[in-house]
């Protein structure tokens, strides 16, 4: 196993969500897309580059970060003083609109660096689909180990709590084998206090509500 650098929240969420053997998300991929967008926003906030104001993201440090993926995400946000998605639900709409693009950025980068493999297949010999099993770097196993350790310690810091909140928001419940329903319920209540996981959760619930009404 190659030692992993300090991973960002989107990287950790993606590696936590993908089954390392089958290469498929262990939750709905659309939900994971929302989670990836939200996790990228949370990482930018942790770096002091953006803040959330009344449901909208505001860029407070427009200089691009060294991480090229986060630099791309920052460039996708409206510049200071402007808002692409206005109103109280602006952040939630950004997450819904940009989730697939953000997920694609990280998938491409992790494949390029050998952390994931890209396997193109066809269902029934006709319908193309893509899987991303773990690569030789071994980062997927490392992320799962770190997450289990954080879970055992009741997610002691904000970064680990954010990752756990995103995992719950996208319905990645099997990532919590050591937590009972009371612990997961307490963690869900914390999502409301974190704007980025909350935006993800609201999009997930919107999809579920639309499905139930059809």
From TrEMBL:
Membrane topology: Peripheral membrane protein
One Pfam family named in its UniProt record: GPP34
Cellular component per GO, a single term: endomembrane system
Chief location of this protein within or outside the cell: Golgi
Keywords per UniProt: Golgi apparatus, Lipid-binding, Membrane
Keyword Nucleus among UniProt keywords: no
Protein localization: Golgi apparatus membrane
Keyword Membrane included in the entry's annotation: yes
UniProt-listed InterPro entries: GPP34-like (IPR008628), GPP34-like_sf (IPR038261)
GO molecular function annotation: phosphatidylinositol-4-phosphate binding
Name of the protein: GPP34 family phosphoprotein
């Amino acid at each position: 196993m190659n030692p992993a650098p300090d991973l960002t929240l989107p990287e950790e969420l993606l590696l936590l969500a993908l089954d390392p053997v089958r290469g498929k998300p262990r939750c709905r991929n659309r939900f994971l897309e929302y989670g990836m967008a939200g996790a990228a926003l949370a990482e930018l906030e942790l770096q002091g580059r953006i803040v959330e104001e009344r449901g909208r993201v505001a860029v407070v440090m427009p200089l691009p970060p060294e991480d090229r993926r986060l630099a791309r995400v920052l460039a996708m946000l409206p510049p200071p003083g402007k808002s692409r998605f206005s109103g109280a639900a602006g952040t939630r709409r950004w997450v819904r609109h940009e989730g697939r693009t953000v997920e694609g950025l990280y998938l491409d980068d992790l494949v390029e660096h050998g952390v994931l493999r890209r396997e193109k297949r066809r269902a029934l010999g006709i319908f193309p689909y893509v899987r991303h099993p773990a690569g030789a770097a071994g980062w997927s196993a490392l992320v799962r180990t770190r997450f289990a350790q954080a879970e055992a310690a009741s997610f002691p810091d904000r970064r680990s709590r954010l990752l756990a909140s995103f995992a719950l928001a996208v319905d990645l419940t099997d990532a919590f084998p050591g937590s009972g329903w009371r612990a997961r319920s307490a963690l869900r209540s914390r999502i409301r206090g974190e704007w980025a996981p909350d935006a993800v959760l609201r999009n997930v619930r919107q999809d579920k509500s639309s499905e139930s009404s059809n």
